[in-house]
Amino acid sequence: VGLVKQVLPDLDNKQIKAIVKMDQDVVDNLVDDTLFWIVRPELSARSIQGLDAILSGSSIGMQIGTSTSPRHEFQGLAGVPPISSDTPGLHLKLTTERLGSIEIGTGIYYRNIEIGEVQAYQLVLDESVLIDFYIEPEFAHLVRDGSRFCNASGVQVSGKLPNLKVQVESLASLLRGGILLHTPKQLQDSPMAENGRLFSLYPDLESADYGIPMTLTLTS
Length: 220
Known about the structure:
By secondary structure, the chain is mostly beta strands. The chain has helices at residues 52-56, 171-176, 205-208, and strands at residues 2-10, 15-22, 35-39, 42-43, 48-49, 59-63, 90-96, 107-110, 113-124, 128-135, 148-151, 156-158, 165-167, 178-182, 198-202. The strands form five sheets. Strands 7-10-9-8-14-11-15 form a seven-stranded mixed β-barrel. Strands 1-2 form a two-stranded antiparallel ribbon. Strands 3-6 form a two-stranded antiparallel ribbon. The longest helix has 6 residues, at 171-176.
């Protein structure tokens, strides 16, 4: 949709300025919230992306905005931006006390099938971490108001000898981290989750199970 025509040093701001000629068909989409970033090769436990950049050189990615205010000068991003909020699917949030091995691109799993991924995270008042994540449209019906999300990173061991329980969600989650979607049977008929819904991230599957903690006092 466009071509870099000239690259100039911006010495005052210690940056690089690229002069880009855009195709006429996309000029109307150059608005306030349109995003640009440099596409670079990425090799991870989860995927291999952008390898064509090794042979053809770096390229610039573009995400169309929804604003109606035209703009012709943009600040390039350091990496791929989160999926646009108007993209079909579910855009949800998680809150947790610690991030652990979760990072941008960490997968969301249901029955060992990856159904979404983490888009962004941020520290909230130095007390908790807020995680933004996305569920693909074909799997959106799996997320209910009563659903639970738990950290499936690495290997989880519970119980005592000789009844040890060892759980590994997938090789990708072992190496890169992962989040597991779990909906208890008692809550499978709860309403479907809507965009913006905030869930808690449980430390493991056992903690995410449905129930009420109780204490029983006996006379003997």
